[in-house]
Amino acid sequence: MLKVGVLGAGHLGKIHLRLLQQSDKYELVGFYDDNPDHAEKISLEFGYKRFHTIATLIHAVDVIDIVTPTLSHYKCARVAIKSGKHVFIEKPIANTVEEAEEIIALAKEFNVKGQVGHVERFNPAFIATRDMIHNPMFIETHRLAEFNPRGTDVPVVLDLMIHDIDVILSVVKSPVKAIHASGVSVISDTPDIANARIEFENGCVANLTASRISLKNMRKSRFFQKDAYISVDFLEKKCEVVKMKDAPENPGDFDMILQNAEGVRKQIYFSNPDISQNNAILDELETFADAIVNNTQPVVTLEDGTEALRVAYQIIDYFNKK
């Protein structure tokens, strides 16, 4: 078992601590949080071993799980990597693209592995449809959240939209050609509602909408490709696939047939792929353990996290130019 320590015991950090303690692939050694009173409370309430410095925790483990505020990701990762420790870094990978690129360089220099916590890659609805998504040419995403003061210190693009940016980059195998965006600041100093249009060199277009002041929560993506439409509900963990194929000569009474002006007839059929329920956060942490033990590539690499951050900042820069 890999010895692991957690940096940061906030809302998400506590979830990581609980899951790592349950995992068969890790031995949870303890945690560090820079708020002494909070750290003491967590230690007493849940029994996790509290470390009083980052250095002592890093020294005691094989893997560091960084669940601190984004501003400190780079500093924490840098210290851990230079100590020869593998790093799991919650999204976004860093506060700037330059910091992210240095994390990549350090991981290569010190021969350690890193993974970024883009948890939607492990959503069971996305897993069920991922292999069906081939060369999508139009993608539409909506990620809406009810207001929560936690996270409003960063633009909604880095808080919410970056999840969909990562998913889109994982299925569109083409460089970004152009970005157009608009955003509105309602209660924060940075945009709370944002829309972005990403055009890829292969012709694919992705339209992303994110809001953190919605009246309801929504996390839906739709992928349109030749002869197929795939809908993924990341919140409800449901999916639907609508496909078209050449119509049979003698269709059944209940077959749905479309015919275009040229007389080409297509049959529409629906499928709901089997979804294996999982704990996405536990899965992302345990697949990282597998990558370390088997010396394989993590599911969400440091490079993946950096590209998602790069596109997110291109969107934010577009706001600032207007």
UniProtKB/TrEMBL annotation:
Transmembrane segments: none annotated. It comes from the Bacteria. Residues 2-118 form the Gfo/Idh/MocA-like oxidoreductase N-terminal domain. InterPro entries: Gfo/Idh/MocA-like_OxRdtase_N (IPR000683), Gfo/Idh/MocA_Oxidoreductases (IPR051450), GFO_IDH_MocA-like_dom (IPR055170), NAD(P)-bd_dom_sf (IPR036291). Residues 155-216 form the GFO/IDH/MocA-like oxidoreductase domain. GO terms for molecular function: nucleotide binding. Gene3D superfamilies: Dihydrodipicolinate Reductase, domain 2 (3.30.360.10), NAD(P)-binding Rossmann-like Domain (3.40.50.720). This is Gfo/Idh/MocA family oxidoreductase.
